[in-house]
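User: Fold this; C-alpha coordinates only.

Assistant: Input:
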Amino acid sequence: MTTEFFMPMKPPTKTHQQKKVRIVDGKPVFYEPAELAAVRVKLRDHLARHIPEKEYTGAVRLVTKWCFPITGKRQDGEYKTTKPDTDNLQKLLKDVMTDLGFWTDDALVASEITEKFWAEVPGIYIKIEKL
Protein backbone atom coordinates (compact mmCIF):
# COMPACT_ATOMS: atom_id res chain seq x y z
CA MET A 1 0.00 0.00 0.00
CA THR A 2 1.34 3.42 -0.97
CA THR A 3 -0.17 6.87 -0.59
CA GLU A 4 1.33 9.69 -2.66
CA PHE A 5 0.20 13.26 -3.30
CA PHE A 6 1.28 16.90 -3.68
CA MET A 7 -0.47 19.74 -1.86
CA PRO A 8 0.07 23.03 -3.70
CA MET A 9 0.39 25.73 -1.05
CA LYS A 10 2.82 28.10 0.54
CA PRO A 11 4.32 25.75 3.16
CA PRO A 12 3.94 26.98 6.72
CA THR A 13 7.02 28.32 8.46
CA LYS A 14 5.56 28.28 11.97
CA THR A 15 6.49 25.01 13.66
CA HIS A 16 5.62 22.83 16.61
CA GLN A 17 8.65 24.25 18.41
CA GLN A 18 6.84 27.56 18.70
CA LYS A 19 4.38 26.37 21.34
CA LYS A 20 4.10 28.66 24.34
CA VAL A 21 3.96 28.04 28.07
CA ARG A 22 2.21 29.85 30.87
CA ILE A 23 2.03 29.11 34.57
CA VAL A 24 -1.37 28.14 36.01
CA ASP A 25 -1.58 27.39 39.75
CA GLY A 26 2.20 27.10 39.84
CA LYS A 27 2.32 24.51 37.02
CA PRO A 28 3.44 24.96 33.40
CA VAL A 29 0.66 24.69 30.82
CA PHE A 30 1.64 24.47 27.14
CA TYR A 31 -0.58 25.99 24.47
CA GLU A 32 -0.55 26.84 20.78
CA PRO A 33 -0.53 30.53 19.95
CA ALA A 34 -3.11 31.61 17.35
CA GLU A 35 -0.54 31.58 14.50
CA LEU A 36 0.44 27.97 15.21
CA ALA A 37 -3.20 26.90 15.56
CA ALA A 38 -3.84 28.48 12.13
CA VAL A 39 -0.99 26.40 10.64
CA ARG A 40 -2.51 23.24 12.15
CA VAL A 41 -5.87 24.10 10.51
CA LYS A 42 -4.18 24.85 7.16
CA LEU A 43 -2.37 21.50 7.19
CA ARG A 44 -5.52 19.66 8.30
CA ASP A 45 -7.59 21.20 5.51
CA HIS A 46 -5.05 20.31 2.82
CA LEU A 47 -4.33 16.81 4.18
CA ALA A 48 -8.01 15.92 4.66
CA ARG A 49 -8.41 15.46 0.88
CA HIS A 50 -5.78 12.71 0.89
CA ILE A 51 -6.69 10.49 3.86
CA PRO A 52 -6.15 6.87 2.80
CA GLU A 53 -9.20 4.59 2.72
CA LYS A 54 -7.55 2.36 5.30
CA GLU A 55 -5.17 3.71 7.93
CA TYR A 56 -1.66 2.31 8.14
CA THR A 57 -1.17 -0.04 11.10
CA GLY A 58 2.40 -1.22 10.51
CA ALA A 59 5.81 0.26 9.80
CA VAL A 60 5.92 2.97 7.11
CA ARG A 61 8.42 5.17 5.33
CA LEU A 62 7.40 8.83 5.13
CA VAL A 63 8.92 10.86 2.31
CA THR A 64 8.29 14.60 2.38
CA LYS A 65 9.56 17.33 0.12
CA TRP A 66 8.86 20.83 1.37
CA CYS A 67 8.83 23.22 -1.61
CA PHE A 68 9.12 26.86 -0.54
CA PRO A 69 8.46 29.83 -2.86
CA ILE A 70 11.60 31.12 -4.50
CA THR A 71 13.03 34.30 -3.00
CA GLY A 72 16.03 36.34 -4.08
CA LYS A 73 18.41 34.68 -6.51
CA ARG A 74 17.40 31.10 -5.65
CA GLN A 75 16.96 28.49 -8.36
CA ASP A 76 14.03 26.10 -8.78
CA GLY A 77 15.00 22.84 -7.08
CA GLU A 78 17.85 24.33 -5.06
CA TYR A 79 18.08 22.94 -1.53
CA LYS A 80 16.80 25.33 1.15
CA THR A 81 19.34 25.60 3.96
CA THR A 82 17.60 28.22 6.08
CA LYS A 83 14.95 27.89 8.78
CA PRO A 84 12.60 26.29 9.51
CA ASP A 85 14.45 23.10 10.41
CA THR A 86 13.13 19.91 8.81
CA ASP A 87 12.59 18.14 12.15
CA ASN A 88 10.40 20.99 13.38
CA LEU A 89 8.37 20.99 10.14
CA GLN A 90 7.79 17.25 10.38
CA LYS A 91 6.49 17.19 13.97
CA LEU A 92 3.34 19.22 13.34
CA LEU A 93 2.73 17.54 9.97
CA LYS A 94 2.87 14.05 11.51
CA ASP A 95 0.69 15.10 14.44
CA VAL A 96 -2.00 16.35 12.05
CA MET A 97 -1.72 13.20 9.92
CA THR A 98 -2.21 11.11 13.06
CA ASP A 99 -5.26 13.16 14.09
CA LEU A 100 -6.76 12.62 10.61
CA GLY A 101 -6.23 8.85 10.67
CA PHE A 102 -3.43 8.36 8.15
CA TRP A 103 -2.01 5.82 10.62
CA THR A 104 -2.81 4.55 14.09
CA ASP A 105 0.22 6.32 15.57
CA ASP A 106 3.08 8.36 14.08
CA ALA A 107 5.47 6.03 15.92
CA LEU A 108 4.84 3.74 12.90
CA VAL A 109 7.07 6.04 10.85
CA ALA A 110 10.17 3.84 10.97
CA SER A 111 11.92 5.48 8.01
CA GLU A 112 11.82 9.14 7.12
CA ILE A 113 13.21 11.10 4.20
CA THR A 114 12.69 14.84 4.45
CA GLU A 115 13.99 17.48 2.09
CA LYS A 116 13.30 21.17 1.59
CA PHE A 117 13.77 23.11 -1.60
CA TRP A 118 13.16 26.44 -3.24
CA ALA A 119 10.52 25.86 -5.92
CA GLU A 120 8.57 27.66 -8.61
CA VAL A 121 5.52 25.63 -7.54
CA PRO A 122 5.40 25.76 -3.74
CA GLY A 123 3.80 22.99 -1.73
CA ILE A 124 4.38 19.77 0.13
CA TYR A 125 4.94 16.40 -1.56
CA ILE A 126 4.11 13.40 0.62
CA LYS A 127 4.61 9.70 0.02
CA ILE A 128 3.78 7.00 2.57
CA GLU A 129 5.07 3.51 1.82
CA LYS A 130 4.25 0.38 3.77
CA LEU A 131 7.49 -1.31 4.85
